[in-house]
Amino acid sequence: MSLGRAPVLLQLGLLVLLVLVPQVIQLSYLLDVLIVTVMYVGLALSYDLIVGHVGSLSLAQPAFYGIGAYAVALLSTRVGWPTVACLAAAAIIAGLLALPVGIPSFRLSQYSFAIGTLGFATVAQLVAQNWIDLTDGPMCVTGVPKASIGGLSFATLPSFYYFVLAVVIGIFLFTRRLVGSRIGRSFAAVHENELLASAVGVSPLKYKLLAFSLSAALAGVIGGMYAYYVNVVCPTELSLFITLNLLVILFIGGAGSPRGVVLGAIAGTSLPELLRLASSWRLVLFGVALLVIINFFPDGLEGGLRRIERRLARRSTSA
Amino acid sequence: MNGVLEVERITKRFFGLTVLDDVSFGVKPGELLSIIGPNGSGKTTLFNVISGFLRAERGRVRFHDTDITTWPPHAIARRGLVRTFQDVRLFAGLSALDNLRLAVQQHQEEDLLGRFVWSPKVRRMEREATHRATALLEEFGLFEQRHMRAGLLSYGQRKLLEFAMAIMPEPEVVLLDEPAAAVNPTMINTLTEHIVAYNSAGHTVVLIEHNMGVVMDISHRVLVLDSGRLIAQGPPEQVRENPLVLEAYFGR
After folding, report:
1. Is the dihedral of CA B202, B74, B20, B207 positive or negative?
2. Which among A96, A266, B26, B84 would be 20 to 30 A from B161, CA to CA?
3. What is the pLDDT of residues B85-121, one digit of tens each?
4. ipTM for the predicted complex
């Protein structure tokens, strides 16, 4: 009985902790790490929709993230739109751009989708770099205002932390809801066996496009948040290396599980930062930590948690 | 032209090899029709063409009076023509219950928003699906295994679950590709009973089967394919005596 309630209590406790953090930590460096970590959690959750749930390897997440960042930067500086409108536009633009990328890429094979999205990510980066009239190229879009909603301004670090936390919790609840719905079951069907999915009446193309587009829209929102955070958007934000980080996060967290992805993002983002204490050994230690995780939790942290939960459940029933 | 399913002059070639050669036949409502023929005679290819998984070079497939020749597989399944596969196909990582609940897309509207916000209508459909899935699991003796991953079921159980999935949405026509292949005699009887029961409830069944005992027992009518051509059709006892059929199976 108490076991059934434990996760809820744990989640509430975690939430209180997350809310209290800025009251305790006054160091702006640590708050910065925290904000970046929370943003990575959101980005990883968006990435997991397409990679973890539908099982299609997309390499275009940095492109959608960057498109969201540029959408916010351009709309807020050149058109003067308010925060909520800019973020909504970032989501819609990224989500719609996913369709012309997904439709041709999905139609061929798994590999063509990966390559198609990689091509798109590369082209997006080149456009940001070279379409000077629109993006100012390597001079970057500067002067992005601080985010504010109504009278609420998110100019200080703690207030921005709360803003980003609220958005990412929203993304977490959205993806969990989506995955638990009938739509999520259809995603799982397409992931498991596309041929059989179509035999039972689930259109693989439709559900893959849906996941891809939603994934892109959420990445666009996180990109927009980033633009509001650093107030400058450069072509380097579309760096393909983000994909590598995201893959590591899904791998150590456990693709296909919101909880695992959150843990993976926290581990994959804050661990390298914490290891800065040992500056020259940082990457070596991070590599060792990854190896240890892979060795002991081949299904990611989520797999490890499930094993512990099963053991606890067995103990409580046998007691 | 009063059949529930009409196959008209289907021709299918692979790399110049004619796998189906001008095949035409109709299926009457409520009929249990078996398709037999030696290995490689084009039976499965015929199913693939009817269910939309392969596109034929020539010919039409009509379901009632709708031309479904160029429809995608998922649209055909939603319309009420469901097929199974020769090699067992299940969502191995999902529970037996979820496998069944996935197989009711026909009755679910394409309402994505409703599915996401869990609208009352979607909740009701979900309840009905769970209810029917549970009833089927009981009927097929799989209730105890309902939360088990389908991939962990025994071969016979998977065959049963596969058939249960096919009839989950109560399709008007079900195409069964060797449902009793490689299962033990007891399980063959169980499966045959379920197939006959489904057919007796007024549904149309088209069956590919190698087990002649089963075919002769339960079929109303038998079609014989040989090298992609329809060489004989008729009641089981008549087809059994047909010299062309004997020749196709045993050689001259």
Report:
1. negative
2. B26
3. 988 789 988 999 999 988 876 555 556 666 666 677 7
4. 0.82
